[in-house]
Amino acid sequence: MSLxxxxxxxxxxxxxxxxxxxxxxxxxxxxxxxxxxxxLLGDTLSHxxxxxxxxxxxxxxxxxxxxxxxxxxFTGSLAALVMLLLTRMSRLKTDAALGISLSVFFxxxxxxxxxxxxxxxxxxGGLDAFLFGQAAATLRSDLxxxxxxxxxxxxxxxxxxxxxxxxxxxxxxxxxxGLPVTLLEALMTxxxxxxxxxxxxMVGVVLMAAMVIAPAVAARQxxxxxxxxxxxxxLFGIVGxxxxxxxxxLGPGLATGPLIILSLSSVVxxxxxxxxxxxxxxEILKLQRDRRQLRHQRVLTTLYQLASHxxxxxxxxxxxxxxxxxxxxxxxxLERLTARGLITQQTPPSHEPGDHKRWVLTPEGCRxxxxxxxxxxxxGRA
Length: 382
Fold this sequence. Notes:
With about 375 residues, the chain is mostly helical.
């Protein structure tokens, strides 16, 4: 299929627009879940949406998207409120409350799904696609519903930005400022349920948790401010959603939902590896640099201590003497210290046996060694 024909395909247009909207709203709302250390929240709400999908189907008497999404929003929000009540009115921790809500609501959803399949309703075909998503079934009318839900969520975020920001970083301080913390937390949780509702058609109940969390996790690696994190998370969500949809279109038979998640997982992997100052590669390089600096400091202070022991700042130390003192080869460290001008290399006098090079501290090297030893001394006293 040519590029023009591919871009003009009605189904692909629907899938790409839906994936972009899903990535946008999931990226924005997922940031608050990650910052509040509730990464399991997306998983809980997505599984809790299943009974709502079934209830919407039963009430509408068929596969009517508006009723199904309304039901999913209702049960997802209800599960979120149950989780909040359990954490506020019992000794249960957040993770235990999330686990209880997830298990109970998903079990109810499976029971209702089994009941619907046993009724013989001809329109129930494809209802189980909400478990894993069926992006190709997205209609233009579905996009309008998704756009409306996404718009409501984004307007709420914009209108309550300062309050959400404060509650996410320091809920106790927010309470001292008179903010209704419980109400704001409940509202944020319901908004994440909105994101789940948007994604049910695209990626399904099972994979929706990754859609909420992955863009925010990737963005957190690159950002130090919430504003930057939210914008990057939205961008990563859109890119991952559109990329997965396009790859699915290019490969016949490939499921769109899992490919969207795999695209986002690739973004997360790149971010974890290469994000400046936080990525694994940067950490490894920093660790190697710190180890190299420590070796250089040990060699420098060893030369200084040998000179102090002989009461001669110009004492000439041999490499093998330094090696014996440290128990390791000091050649590279000596070369590096020489390049920095902290030590100088001297050739032994002709009347001395051997041809071993000698190393002498420069005035700058003496000052640097004294500074290092002084810092170590203060650290030990502290």
